[in-house]
Each structure stands twice: as C-alpha cells, then as structure tokens.
Design a protein that fits this description.
five-stranded mixed beta sheet, single chain, two-stranded antiparallel ribbon, 199 residues, 8 helices, Helicase, Ruva Protein, domain 3
Length: 199
C-alpha cells in the first residue's frame, strides 16, 4: 500500500513497539490521523513526559514517580519477604495478584551470555547488600521459567547461599518458556503459593 512519507514514518516508529506488526501499526497510524487533535497531543505529551517523570526506586529499582516507591514505603508490607524479579513488568504482574505482601527487588534482566548479559550487567551486588544489611528472612526467586531465568535464579541462589536467608523459587504453575508479564493473575498467584526451596 502506497502512503505519504509522514504516515510511513509513524508506521515505522509504531512497529518498534513490542507486539506491533505492520497491520497493527498501520491501523494505529490511520486511527491517530482521523482522531481529534487532542488525542494525538495527549498521546505525544504522555510519551514525552514518561522518560522525564519516571525514576528508579533507590530500594527496589522499580520504575516509579517518587523514590522510594509506594511499595517500599508501605508499612503494611512484610520487609522480611523479598521477591526478586527480572523486570518492572514482572513486579507489576506479581503485585496485581494481591497474593504477595512483601517487598520486591528488580534485577534489571536475566543472565544471557549470547546477548552479552553477564552478572555485572545485573543488580546482583545491590541485592547482596540489601539482604546483608536488611531484615530479609526469605528471598523468593521469581525469575521467568525459561533457560535464562533458571540460570539467573541458580546464580543468585549461589551468591546468597552464605547469608542467613531461606531461598525459594516460584513453582512452575507458570508455563515453561513464558514471561511473567503476560501470564494471568491466577497462574502467578498459584506459582507464588506453591514456591519451593532451592536445593
């Protein structure tokens, strides 16, 4: 389909978003073209403000508008339980279940030698510090149930083993090879309920 260069530019930009292919990007571009000016302006402003207004929480490394974040500031949460996840989207997925009332820690990814992600690229040292100087009694490793997530959980458990904490791993209620951010809340909740000790 032949379109004007400004539309092609928007379609190309939209296709960079995860899960957006050619057809979806084209449909979104034409929607924005036909929508009232206020819709496009609101979307543009929201995108522009996103990078400006979002910071990393100094305690858990979640994305937030204030540090420490609302979860870390919540006095009703149990600071002795620490759930370790790969990315902020995983934290949001677990928190949405309402099953976990402890604190979180975002590693910033998973070990993946093929992609050049080693232990130095993750927040493993910061995690060790948090466990060493905090009141953490149990660390729940909630990395994704795939090869990278399993390798990360194993590596983190080996690093934390010398410390006086219980190490658990979420149960495989999660589909093997799946991502936490795309799983339903019931499945994630069951995975947390049936977590197991790491040998």
């Amino acid at each position: 389909m032949r379109t004007a260069p400004p539309i092609d530019r928007l379609v190309a930009a939209l296709k960079r978003l995860p899960g957006i292919g050619d057809k979806s990007a084209t449909r979104l571009a034409f929607f924005l073209l036909g929508a009232p000016d206020a819709v496009g302006q609101e979307l543009g402003e929201a995108i522009a403000r996103l990078k400006r207004d979002i910071v990393l929480c100094a305690e858990c490394f979640d994305l937030t508008d204030a540090s420490p974040c609302a979860v870390c500031r919540d006095p009703k949460r149990d600071p002795s339980l620490l759930c370790v996840v790969e990315e902020p989207a995983d934290l949001a997925a677990i928190d949405a279940t309402g099953k976990f009332r402890g604190h979180f820690f975002v590693l910033g990814g998973a070990l993946s030698p093929i992609d050049g992600v080693g232990p130095e690229e993750l927040r493993i040292r910061e995690l060790e510090e948090r466990v060493r100087h905090g009141i953490v009694k149990e660390v729940i490793l909630a990395t994704n149930p795939n090869a990278e997530g399993d390798a990360t959980a194993h590596y983190v458990s080996e690093r934390l083993r010398p410390q006086d904490v219980t190490l658990t791993r979420i149960a495989y209620g999660m589909p093997l090879g799946g991502d936490l951010e795309y799983a339903d809340h019931v499945t994630i909740g069951l995975s947390l309920d049936h977590r197991r000790a790491i040998d």
